[in-house]
Amino acid sequence: MTMTYRNARWLILPVAAMSLSACGINSVPTKEEAAKAKWANVEAAYQRRADLIPNLVETAKGASRIEQSTLEGVIQARASATQVKLSTDDLNDPAKVQAFQQAQGNVSGALGRLLVTVEQYPDLKSQARFADLMTQLEGTENRINVTVQDYNAAVQDYNTTIRTFPDIIGAKIVHGAQPMTPYRAVTPNANQAPKVDFGQ
């Protein structure tokens, strides 16, 4: 009888360990870290865009007829956006995520106005340096879209995990997990890259 009790005790340990692992002990932080890593890619893509803007503006200044207010708008939007910081700890705060989105949306809007203005200056569009910057900007906007989609997919996976059984047990009791905020476009057509037209 004692021997059976000891054997049963050894059998309970692996079953208990498997039960705990199925309760979100490991999966919740793993998926949270995956979403945070995807967010880092979003930040890197936006930083690349911010780094391109000063060169783009300086090159556009060469066309002296271009509206100064348009260039100033781009510079101001970029400066404001770089001041809005969002750490991975803020990803479950919808207000902070929305502030970041709004700042980046303002940059997209200012760049859109610049690109529309540039269409009126074929001499500027024909400059090799400006054309190169525009190509890089278009690629960066596309990269932003991809990183945002990847981040949102990771957030959806994490949020689903912390709300479904059995992971909800570890999520709430052990980790105190809170849902993360997905990234949404806050300006019309903000999910589309600005149109870059190299036509005549």
How would you sum up this structure, described in words?
With 200 residues, the chain is an all-alpha fold. The protein is 72% helix and 0% strand. The protein is built from seven helices and no strands. It has helices spanning 2-21, 27-61, 68-83, 94-118, 122-125, 128-163, 167-174. The chain is elongated, with a radius of gyration of 24 Å. The chain starts with a helix and ends in a 26-residue tail after the last helix. Residues 15-20 and 193-200 have low confidence and may be disordered.
Mean pLDDT: 81
Low-confidence sequence ranges: 15-20, 193-200
Total number of beta strands: 0
- Count the DSSP helices: 7
Main sheet overview: none
Distance between the termini: 92 Å
* Rg measurement, Å: 24 Å
> What's the order of the H and E elements?
HHHHHHH
Strand content: under 5%
Sheet/helix structural class = mainly alpha
Features:
single chain; 200 residues; mainly alpha; disordered C terminus
List the helices and strands and how they pair.
Layout: H1 2-21, H2 27-61, H3 68-83, H4 94-118, H5 122-125, H6 128-163, H7 167-174
Helix pairs in contact: 2-3, 2-6, 3-4
